[in-house]
Amino acid sequence: MMGDLKFTAHQTWRSVKAGEYRVLLASLILAVACATLLGVVGERIQGALGEETARIAGGDLIISGRKPASLELKQSFTAANLNWSEKVQLTSMASFGNEFLLVSLNGVDSHYPLLGEVRLQGQDNKTWKQSQPPALGEIWMEPGLALRLGAQLGEAVNVGGVSFQLTALLLETPDQSGGFSSFSPKALVHLDSLEGSPLLGSLSRASWRLGVTGDATLLSKLALILPEKLEGHQQLRDFEESQPGIARAMNEGQRYLAMAGLVAVLLAALAVALATQRQTKRQAKEVALLRCLGQTRARVQKLLLLQLFWLGLAAGGIGGLLGYLGHWGLIELLSPVLPLALPAASFKPMFAAIILALWLLLGFSLAPLLSLGQVSPLAVLQSRPWQLSYSAWLTYGLAGVATLGLGWWLSGDWLLTLWTLAGLAAVGLLVAGLGWLLLRLLMSQLENLPWYWRQGLRRLGRNSAETLLQLSTFTLAFTAVLLVARGGDQLMNDWQNQLPAERPNQFAVDIQPYEKQAFAAVLDEQGLAHSQLYPLLRARLTHINGKEAVEAVPDSAASDNALRRELNLTWSEALPEGNTLKAGVWWPNLPAAKADILPVSVEADVAKRLNLTLGDKLTFNMAGSPVQTSIASIREVKWESFNPNFYVIFPPKVLEDQAHTFLASFVLPEDEAGFMRSLTQQFPGVAFLDVRAMLAQAEGILRQLSLGVQYLLGFVLLAGLLVTWALMMASLDARKREQVLLKVLGASRRNLASRQALEFLLLGALAGTLAALLGELLYSLIAGKLLNLPWSAAPLFWVLPPLVGALLLAGFAHLALRKSLQTAPHQLLKELS
Amino acid sequence: MTSNPLATNVTNKSTETASLLQAKNLGYSVAQDESPLVILHNLNLNIHSGEQLAILGPSGAGKSTLLALLAGLDTPTQGELLWRGKPFSSLDEDARAAVRAKEVGFIFQSFQLLPELSALENVMLPLELKGDPKAKEQAAEWLAKVGLSQRIKHRPSQLSGGEQQRVAIARAFVAQPQVLFADEPTGNLDVDNGRKVANLLFELKASTAQAMTLILVTHDRQLAQRCQRILQLEAGQLVAETST
Description:
Number of strands of chain A: 22
Strand order of the largest sheet of chain B: 1-11-10-4-9-8-7
Largest sheet of chain A: 6 strands, mixed, barrel
Shape of chain A: elongated
Strand content of chain B: 25-35%
Radius of gyration of chain A: 34 Å
Strand order of the largest sheet of chain A: 2-3-9-6-8-7
Oligomer: heterodimer
Order of helices and strands of chain B: EHEEEHEEHEHHHEHEHEE
Shape of chain B: globular
């Protein structure tokens, strides 16, 4: 065995030196480097995104409840080496002098903040960041709140009967959760400051959140068992509930990154498969010689396997190293725009690289290489025609297993892998069928075409298997690149639309009906873009279909905020911007209903959580009176629009007699602090909620995701180019042979170049057209299923592929065959023989 | 049969004017690590129109390289080659290709047929390159002459070695070249098929109306002796010229 290892190592090295494995090695190294790079960078970015997600949510795991978590639970986390922090959130009245305002009071423990830092502003507008909570008896308030109360730093402010000293203005907290569910300005105190106060008394409507962070494996295990250990009022919450817009973007982004990564490596793997084909043919002579030298088939096969092993080891090592080194360069390149500090890279992907290389080699080349042992040595040595006789089932089966395994390994998602592969296979088959029909059509018109076309088409038509394989592969590669580019483009557009340049960054709450006109007029006068002024009512959902709401909903929703808090309701004549009707009918097209039952429109997520459907009867308690309603429609709300959004909307006019205020959002430019002061003075009763910090956080994540998308797109393009190159190289020998013969027969270089260009322009344009058609078809199928994106027309993606395909293939053909076009026919003949 | 050991210097004014091809101090070497490897050394040679010339010699003597230089498939590293008295080797690749398209036919040891084309299409190639509208008819005619009228639609892989070489011969003759270069045309065939192919080659040459020049490279002394003149090549040098 050692002897064989040594022999094959030498043999492989000699072949490598002679340039024999050039294409295969290049494809393999690139596939592995690509996968490693994606693996390492993906792991780090995902890790960073995970941290960012956890930071915004306040922990990797969040347990929410109406009471504090038990000491036992906290001790169990400490014993497991997990970090935790508990906070209480409640709405209370803050007062300073004669000013009274509702505030969202957050009491945090000594471990706060669990992740990230708090940004504060002190005397002389000095700002700083710190990772400790306020000291006992101190309070930090959002600048708008302090302004409205008229409190200065150092002064005492009363909240819920407890006196606190205002020591800093709260500019940004790492945990921005709860953003739009509470329209009250925020204040932060130490949890211990609230001990014994009526704020945490038995009638308190406080909500508690325990954030836990630590070892990811342990946390994921904990997430499975924790629900059983929780008390009735507690539940495990996810990020999606607290930040639906960003969570959706992150889910889409991560899913997209996985898909793009998968496509990039699959394409590179396809390049390996193609390079193997050529390699197998080229190795036939070596095998024939070994057989002539008295080696048995079994030994020849063993030697071939060992050569594969060495190749895999070398390519895996080099590719892994290149990918690993490459990732540093990219991270360095991206670091100025990456808003996050990335966690350290692990060496795991390096080891995975070698396994990946061996896996790819075995999957794609085992069957053809082993079948080389069956070839008649005489046929090979006499240059007689020979063919590999291997089982197609074995070959395609192995390649299928290799690809599926690879897909699963990379994405960890069977559904995604199967969809991607099924899509690629369907495209391959469709293209082969269409290509075959087209070739038949062109071949029937052969006589009427000029010589260059005729000769080019003859080549394509007579080698129909090779041509269809080329066409399918080019089309597949183009389609894959198009899918990824199309998905990425739409994803980024979608995200950009979520965060338009002129998006609202201030919310104004508690605008009294008599102030409505004047408030809008002031904003208009100042030239500030603003939303319409929505009426705002508060009501509690008490009954669902006549049953107590808590009993009518599934157990999982028993402590849902929608049941525990007063809901913000509105009325509107038209469906508000950013809302889409998912089911039911919008007024005034409703069928006639009982006069005492009001139709309402309910937000889709809350309907899903509370298991509500059209026609369900909801009873709200509005200022002590029950209001009977029936669900007339269910709406999807684009929470990420940062516009005022509501869980429940009533038709206009029916609630105008109820006590209500108005709510608006508007865009405040950076340098308009003076205007805010005068606005606060002009409308002292109006509460302002500054969401700039939250927007900046959201922007940071979306920017990072967009970068990830563009970055991966680059790799997909690279892999697509690699496939094209490998395919070109696979047919290079045959093309060179043809070229030299035509040269001998007197064809000029210009003639040959034109003929070659025409052949590839035709093939590229055809592949590009088919890719545009099929890519669009496939995209319309997967956009909704995988990326949750609506399909929209993108004419550029229909026009560009044929052009780019034609130019790309013609360009590659020119590069691949340029040297042989210039070489003297005699040299080329010697080289080819 | 006469042998002239000084054949490399055999040139005179009268032959020079009637020469189809003339080599002057022709040399060819390839770069190697230290010193260049000389393949052909200082050859002087006249080939007349209509002549049948065999180049004989052991493996590695430089026969095929000489043939390639004479046909303009490569350029000499030393000396020059004249075609009908005009510089040929100094022409660029395309200009030499144009001469080949017009005046040269080729037969290779390994047939060099395009595998994706039928026998008929392979034979049509030289005519199509010239833009001949009757390529198909003429190709079919020549395939009939080489006894393959029943195999015109077959691809090379469906033909035997002898048949493939006959297709190659038809392809070489179809454009009615002035010069036919044949590089070991029987080298890949068994004795019987080799003899048949050789007979066909000489019969067809004899049947052509114009004075076609045949330049043949071979190991086979018997085949060489069917030509009017034999050049003996050894280690890149002409060591003997024999007239038969």
